[in-house]
Each structure stands twice: as C-alpha cells, then as structure tokens.
Amino acid sequence: EPTWYEGLLRRKAVNLRKVLGKRTPSCGSSALPPNRLALPEVRPKSGLQQSVSEPAFAPKKAWRCVWSGKVGIRAAPSMDGERTGDIIQGGDVFEVVSERRAPDGVLFLELADGRGWVFESKAEVGTVCVRHEAPLQAPQKPVRQPGPELYERLNVHAGLESRLTVSKIQRKLNKEHWQKEETDFLGAQGAAGFRAFLVGRFGTISAGWRALDREGRGHICFSEFCNVCRKLGFHGNMRTLWKELDAKCHGSISLVELDPEAARCVDTFKHELVQKYGSMATAWKEGLDRGGRGSVEEKDVTACCQRLGLDLNGKKLYKLLKNSPPKSTLGLSLKDFDEQAAIRLATGGASAGVPTKDREPASDEMTKQQEVPTEGDG
C-alpha cells in the first residue's frame, strides 16, 4: 500500500503531465508527448521499517511520557517487538521523527535518537505519552569555573596595576565626598549647626527666632520647636538638639538659649524704650519713626540709642531687630520691631498708647528669664 507521500508525488506528476500536454507548439517545436513524462519509481521500504505518516525530512516533534512507571523501548513498532533494553520514565521529554499506527490501533513513535519505538497508549494502562507543546531547549553548555591559571594570568596582566590605582583613587574620592557631606550637614552638628542654619536662612539668629516663635510669646516648647523646624526644612536629631539647647530642663527655650548676647542687647533696648515712652507703640512713633514713614533705617536706631544713653552698637542692633533678609533694601517696620504693638496700632485699640508694665533691665544671667513676656516685649 503506498504511503500518503508517494500518493502526493503521483498526483503532482499527473497534474504536470496534463499541463504539458495542453501546451501549443511554438517556434517549430511540439509539446512533449504524455508518454515522455513517466511517473517516478516508488520503492516502498521493506518490512516494518516503512513509515506511514511522516517523510524522511519531516520536522522533529516533542513528546512527553506521562506514565508513572517505566516504558520499555522496542526495536520495531509492535507490542511483540524485541526490547532494546532502554527505557523512558515519567516526565521524560523526547523527540520523535515518525509515527506509525499498528494493525491493532496502537500508535508507535520512532525516537529521533535511533533507540527504537515506544507506544502512545495501551488498553491495559491507558495513555503513556502525550505531545509536548513547550519547545525543546538546547542543552546548555557547562560553565567553566575559573582555575588557578586564570588568577595567575590576571596577577601578571599589564593593566592590573593601573586598574588598582584607579580603584584606590575612586575609593579615596568617595570617602572625601561622604566626609564633606557629613561636615556640611548642619543637622548632625547639634546647636552650632542649628545656629548656622538660622543665620544662613534668615540672616541673624534673632530673625530666625522670630520665625520659630510665631505667636510672639517669647518661648516655645519641644513640640512647637519640632513642628517649626520641619516646616523650615531643618533635619536632624531633634531630641538631642533640644537637650543641648534646654540644658537646664526648663521645658521651653527662648532667644537666650540660642544667642544670649543678642537677647541681652534687644531686651535692654526695648526695656529702656518702655521706661521712657511708656509703651512700645508710643516708643515707635516718638522714639524711632519720628517722620512717620512707617519704617526706620540704621541711622534712626543709632540716634535712638544715643538719645536713650545706651552704649549699644546701632548697626548690630539694627540687624538684630530687622526681620527681612540681610541684603534687602526694606527698612525696619513696626511689625518686625514688635508685632503685638503693630496689631494694636493698626486696629486703633485703646491700649495702643497705654504704658506697659515696667520690667527690670536685662542682666548677664538671661537663662533665668523663662517667664512669658508682656505685650510690650519683643
């Protein structure tokens, strides 16, 4: 019985013979007679070696053994075929070059490695092999482990010394970079770093203190300190910084803990103004802003200190009182000088010109003054 491939060749030969027989003669030549095109001689394979489903050049297909036991490989596609001694086990994936169905209906698979045939299923045991959809992976080459010879060649390589030198330079530069980062990080420098942050952000520590003491009470607690520092962009160990600032454990800090000299200078100046003019609003109108411009300059503060008979540096005092950036051309306003007095003066309150309660002048022991300041205090 011819195979399907042999039948295909026969049909193609018949169709080609019909086409050549219908050609018309041209240039004195005539079409080839039908008997000139003979069918190719087909010699079927003898015995059981004939494949009934696949040509010799058919692509290989993958199959997988799904039976839990062992399947013996046979030398011929028959259940009675001789065993070759090789086996396949459950989970094995193998390639098949041809398939043949035996007279009893069992499909046999020819292994691509030439070991023999295995059957696809059997009535007594059920399905033994199924088609494997996943493509077969090419076997991976074993990874060669470096031996002592490789390390010996690397140690005597011409570029080894230069690579080691470059590596040392890179490690040194990285170390210097991180050291500089740690040095420039003000949050790791304690109270000194915090004071440097205030000076860099606001120009003076006193101006930075006014940003911390937003309610103008003269002191802040730990929670207020942490919240304002986060809003200002200062990062660091807040608890350690607080313990360093509040060394005497008062529970709150003031300008005295940040800059004692600035606190003494500002407090002395405001105390003398209240003593002479009675209130901060009156002192602003009669002692500082005599022209009613709404702001005062450095010369006005210096002249006021001379009238009060204070031995204070007017230029330094002006910078301490000013709340705008150092390079700003804006002068000192009443809001910078005393925010509460500016509010009373703007609203026209009855207490705008009422003298405030007298206070004792500032002393060197400013750390003892932790009480809440009066309305006239800065």
Automatic annotation (TrEMBL):
Record-linked Gene3D superfamilies: EF-hand
GO molecular function: calcium ion binding
Protein name: EF-hand domain-containing protein
Lineage: Eukaryota, Sar, Alveolata, Dinophyceae, Gonyaulacales
Boundaries of every EF-hand domain copy: 209-235
The organism of origin for this protein: Alexandrium monilatum
SUPFAM superfamilies cross-referenced by the UniProt entry: EF-hand
Comp. bias regions, Basic and acidic residues: 356-368
InterPro entries: EF-hand-dom_pair, EF_hand_dom
Ranges where the record places region Disordered: 346-378
